Amino acid sequence: MLLIAALASRALAQSAHRAGVAVVALDLFGDVDTRRYARATQKIAPRGDGVYGFDAEDLLRAADTLCPSEQCTGLVVGAGFEDCPDLLTRLSRGRKLYGNTPDTVARLKHPASFFGLLDGLGMPHPRIAFDAPDDLESWLIKRCGGSGGGHVSAATATAASGAGSYHSAAHYYQRLTLGRSVSVLFLANGERASVVGFNQQWKANRAASCAASTYLYGGAINRVMLGQVLQSEIADRLDRLVSETGMVGLNGMDFLLTGGDDYSVLEINPRPPATLDLYDADFPLFEWHLRACGGELPPQRPPTQLPFMVRAHAIVYAQNNVTIAPDTQFAPWCSDIAPPGSVIMRGTPVCTVHAEGCEPNSVMRSLRAREQLVDIALWKKAA
User: Fold this and answer.
1) C-alpha span between 236 and 194 (Å, rounded)
2) pLDDT tens digits, one per residue of 171-185
3) In this structure, what DSSP letter does residue 131 have?
4) Which domains does the chain have, with CATH numbers?
């Protein structure tokens, strides 16, 4: 049996199910659809310090119970280990890790080493600082190894005082750069990369009014207008990045389009990112993740092999605290569905909505309408 561990494991479990791979899954949510795709699941307690993540000991106990190392055929991880590669080391002990090593994760998520690596590869990125700049107005403050955007905020004097210097707390400063938010999903085999697709991303619609961060991940669509020159340059730089770091499996890179063919790299997600949802129905990404970890890449870039549907997804965040009633019915285009009785706190995810079609604008209209339908349904339940 193969073990999946992630903050939210539904997408990986669903991808494994499509590929015919039997898995058990650990995450923070225990969603209804995760249970549908995995042979067994267990909900893990969150960290006790307020940081979004696993309680390490609870995760390790659950792994030993659900998929002990002597019975485990492999380990695949999603988000949740970027800021604690030592936990990944402990979890993978006695288990075959299909993914980047803890050392690789640490190198790619440590801002000094990562942005230094980008400099060496000639990949542009926003200016960073480890101590509070004199003028905070045009800076962001980020937690090292954070994911999902909830760890990002404007660098106000209050935020800077709370974070302290880089040496006293796990934060750093990044110059605010304007541009269109884009990501690239790619497979890596330790020597080179194979681009799966480029995606346009956005922040959560109402994050500013209902959550602590205005930079929460809101969703993505698997269509973005990129010139062939820029696509080729990014593919070439990814080859060099993979060769330098030994990255394997399915990964993502977030960057900004700043004008023309200019771009600025924000971060690497050294594990399967959320955008795998946008391709998996057409291309067996879980299978290719495993194969890439073994050194094999597709013979050509996947989009040239079959016509991908236009797909988009968006996370719906709760506008108020809400309890999922036993008679709550979620539409077939919803995923990441909490079990009845779950209490969803204001500003946290309720579910993910999906839309697909042949034309990006119509897909986005459908997606926005479905977001509103979920909001209305929850408001009526709470009223």
Assistant:
1) 10
2) 899 999 999 999 999
3) S
4) 2-97 (3.40.50.20), 127-175 (no CATH), 180-382 (3.30.470.20)
